[in-house]
Structures are given as structure tokens and as C-alpha cells.
Queue: 4 jobs
Job 1
Amino acid sequence: MDASSFREAIFQVHSHGRDRGHYFLAAEDPRFDDRHISVAGKRLLSFGSCSYLGLEFDPRLIDGGVEAYRRYGTQTSFSRGYLSCPLYPELEEDLLPRIFGVPRVLLLPSTSIAHHVVMPALLAENDAVVCDHQVHRSV
């Protein structure tokens, strides 16, 4: 298959999925209050959240987030290799190890960096890694 045929096939699949309403949807809710969302007038259970523990509306986390914003502002995206926000040591060295019951945790800022750090430590030269089509591209 030449490049233009391949691009055309991708475009057709994309258009078909979009026309059928599989993606590029918009939630209609004025605010989120649980795991449900409204799309095209239908109330749906959302599996799109990254809140695996279901804590996105926990008042303790919301209050803690508001307090952190008041103390440090919204732009504390320092690279921890150069400058650490005062919140990080408390979180990394005290709270997370206690939560998980371990002496130390390794907290990485992105999925990509986690893959680049952890995969070489877990795999040997002759190991095979089998991934499906939805694997993160950094793997």
C-alpha cells in the first residue's frame, strides 16, 4: 500500500468513527459531581477519568489543593532536578511511603519518563515484550 492509499484509509476510518459519534464528543454537564457525564442528552457512565481511586471529589483533596494553590500559586511546575517546591519532599519522603507501607517511593512526572526509567530495570537483553495496539507510545 503506498503512502497516499494508507493516508486515505486512515482518513476514512477516522471519518467513519467521528460520524458514528465514537470520539470528539463534548460533555454537556455544567459541572461534574460523580462518574457520570451527559453526552448528546444521554446520561453515561464515564470510563475516561484517570482517577483510579475515585477521589476526584474527596473534600480533603479539594481543600488540600486549594491550600496549596494559596501557598504556592498555580505555576509551580519546577523541574525537580533544579528546584523543588516545598510540597514535594513532604509528599515523596513522608506521605507516599506511609500510604503504600514501603520505605521509599519513586515518583516520576510523566508516564513516558516512568517507562524510560522502569523498563530497563525490569527487562534483560533477551526478554520479549508483547504489547497491544493501545500501549503508550513511549514503550
Job 2
Amino acid sequence: MKIVENKSRNILGREIIANVNPGTKIFTDQWPSYISFFGDQNIYSHNFVNHSLNFVDPVDGTHTQTIESLWSEFKRFKRKYGYSKQRLIY
């Protein structure tokens, strides 16, 4: 995990390019920053799910449940033990 200044297209795009290998298949929801960034490049394969319609795309099976589960575990850990920014990469 990495702390970022905000969730803008430029910040997220910079972090994705710096930390994700070209050609990686990436699954997201329809957060506007993701749609904008991935729509303007051809380095990554991008699948997304429209949560206003469903949680799993019925055509290609795209979902974000794995990362949602990770966030849930992180929040549970944070409530129980607290956390220090020094332990996270940033």
C-alpha cells in the first residue's frame, strides 16, 4: 500500500506507471480518474465494472471484490492496532 496525495488522474497515473509492469491486466471500478487515465494509454489492459449496475460484470466477470476485501482487512487491522505512516511506503 502507498499513501498518495489525492486520487486525481495525474497522481494515480504516475503511481501506476512507477509501480505496475507494462502489459499488466488491471481491474477497477469506474472512478473517473481510472477511466480518464486508462482511456488515454495502451500500456495496460484495463477492465472495469460499473457498480451502479452490478458488482461483477456479467460479460467478462470483472470485479473489484478482491481489493475490497483487502481494504476491509486493512481497516480492521487499523482499528485494532492503529498504524504508523512510517510503516507504509510513501
Job 3
Amino acid sequence: MSTDEQILNQLQALQEGQERIEAQIEGLATRVGGIETKVDDLQKGQRLLATKLDVLAQTSEEQHKGIFDTLLGMNDIAHERITRVEKHLNLPPLD
């Protein structure tokens, strides 16, 4: 084999090696793109979950306030009834 043939074979091997490397780089770029998409999806899901948790917390707070207000109202009604019974029976107030 002549020197020219050896150089030609080496150049061909280098070119094939370069093509394999470029294919691997493209494959890695595709994988990175897929990972970036998954990260974006996870971040969107995380933001949606945070929003839902905020809404749930506000709803719970509103529900607790509603329950508390209801209990206060029931307490006021009970106090009024006790006061009426005390007056009716001529009992001194318990304060």
C-alpha cells in the first residue's frame, strides 16, 4: 500500500469518526432538548400545584372563618336564650 493510499485511508477513517461524533452530538442535543422540555413541564406543573395550594389555603381560611362566624353566631343566640330564661325565672345573670 502506498503512502497516498495510507493517507487516504486515514482521512476516510477520520471522516467516519467525525460523522459518528456528529451523530452522537445530535443525539445528545436531542436528549438535552427532551430533558429541557421535561424540566419545563415539571416547572409548569409545580407552578400549577402552587397555585392550587394557594387557592386551597384561601378556601380553607375562608371556610374556617365561616365556621368561626357561625359558632360565634350560635354562641350569641345561646347567650340570648340563656338571658331570656334567666329573666323569666328571675335568676341573677351568670356573667
Job 4
Amino acid sequence: MDQDFKDMDSEGRWQNLYIEIRNQSHECPLKVAKYPENRNRNRYRDVSPFDHSRVKLENTENDYINASLVVMEEAQRSYILTQGPLRNTCGHFWLMIWEQNTKAVIMLNRVIEKGSEKCAQYWPTQDEHEMSFRDTHFLITLVSEDVKSYYTTRVLELQNDKTGEKREIYHFHYTTWPDFGVPESPASFLNFLFKVRESGSLGADHGPAVVHCSAGIGRSGTLSLVDTCLVLVSPAPSHL
């Protein structure tokens, strides 16, 4: 793996590889995302999940959400990569988390970036403490919040109002990764990733972790790929 990387880098083949993968992706249909009734569920017109890997909502009339299941079999990792929820899809977002038995949400963007809303405020702040989503019957309560210099960790209580069942969800929020940019330092990024790992949320005991930024492809894909690569190169017999 190390030699392959060095060869790719020294020969300048990254751009060619990107074009090859992009061309292959054109063979995968993404019809459902383009249905008229689903257009207002997409944050960006040019970012849609493939039909074969999209996450399907179960207990709702329309099963569409802009989210994709990514399975890394060799690393025994699964992630759900999704866009920053829109104001009209926050309820769908929490329904997906409930149905997929997700333990952690990993947020890699700010709500507002460069003066534009990149994500709806889908979790309660300390001022309001609770948020209710009547369309999907979920109540979200802020249990705790730990603010660090470059990330914030929250514990949320997710309650299904139909059944009364409650679950504890971790919310890991990296706050210093600019859109179309890179984290301030590799150390801070890795410390954040290891904090997520320590929670056990990426393990096979839970459903896929939900990873999102604004579009759900750049920063989200990078974190998932870095985590997967670290698993594959680690000599340890088991991984958090």
C-alpha cells in the first residue's frame, strides 16, 4: 500500500484516478433523488445519492433522504454519509438515525459558513434544551455539552414519541474545518477522530455512524476514508 501511494504521488496520477472514478460513477443511476417530490429534500442540485446505496426511510410514506450507506468490508466499518439537514428534513434525519440504530452523529461543518446556512439547527442548544419534530414524532433533549477549542461533544437523548423509548446519541461536532479547506492541523483532526473512536460508536455493536458536512461528500468522505485507512494499517487485532 505504501509503495502504491508513493508511485501514484511521484508519477502525478491522482488526477487521472479521479477522472476514472468519476466516469465510472456515471454508470450508477440516481433517479429517485430527481423525482419531483424529492427535489426539496436535496440541499444541492448536483449532489444526489445513488439508487443502489441510498438509505431508505422505513416508517414514512416517502422513503427518500439524501444519504448513502458506505460499507468498508475489509475494515469492518460502515458509515452513513449525508448532507447537512435542511429545515424540512430534520425530522427525516432523526428518523433515519433511529431506524439505523446509529449511536453517533459526526458533524464536520458549522451551521453558518461564509454567511450562508450550510445546515439546519437540528439539535437543541443550551438555551432551548429540547426540540420536537412532529412530522416524525421525535423529541431531542440536550443532556450535556463539552466545548473544546476545535470541537464540541454533546450527549443527546432521542425519544420516540410513538413508543416512549429513549436512546442516548453522541454528537461530535468538529468546528474548525473550513469548507473547501483543510483542518488547522493533522493533530487536532486525529484527536477528534480518536475521541469518536473512544466512544465505541464506530464499532459493530451499533448501526452505522452518521457523518455529515454541508453536502455530505468532501469533509464527510475524508473523515470516513482516514478512519478506514487507519484501521487497515493498524497492527492491532481489533479496532474501536
